Task: inverse folding
């Protein structure tokens, strides 16, 4: 194995887990809170000035990481999976988003077309909102 690794301080309780056992998270925050950010932007003379960020690396012991919900308790088999899956919020394109009323109306129109096509003997196929008639 590795042998002995140095000890780090837990940022939550102050205990000293080994560096390879501690749960590590890199924290990037704004130096100024969001409430004062607008005041500083209004008072600054430079329009293109960006405020610096605060970068810290946090170490937590296992019990503090579980208690503060940084990690979750996993089964013995799941603990062997070492892949870290990032949870980033997915971007939504406002152009692709349809209003609820238009979507409901489109569904109603599609149902009406299907009813009309069944009486006329036509077959309608719909894919991605596009209705095609095949006779």
Result:
């Amino acid at each position: 194995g590795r042998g002995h690794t140095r000890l780090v301080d837990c940022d939550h309780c102050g205990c000293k887990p080994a560096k390879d056992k501690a749960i590590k998270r890199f924290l990037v925050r704004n130096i100024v809170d969001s409430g004062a950010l607008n005041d500083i932007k209004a008072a600054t003379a430079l329009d293109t000035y960006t405020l610096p960020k605060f970068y810290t690396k946090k170490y937590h012991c296992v019990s503090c990481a579980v208690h503060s919900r940084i990690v979750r308790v996993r089964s013995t088999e799941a603990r062997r999976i070492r892949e870290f899956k990032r949870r980033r919020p997915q971007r939504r394109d406002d152009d692709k988003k349809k209003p609820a009323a238009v979507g409901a109306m489109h569904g109603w129109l599609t149902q009406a077309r299907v009813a009309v096509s069944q009486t006329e003997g036509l077959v309608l196929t719909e894919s991605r909102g596009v209705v095609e008639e095949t006779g």
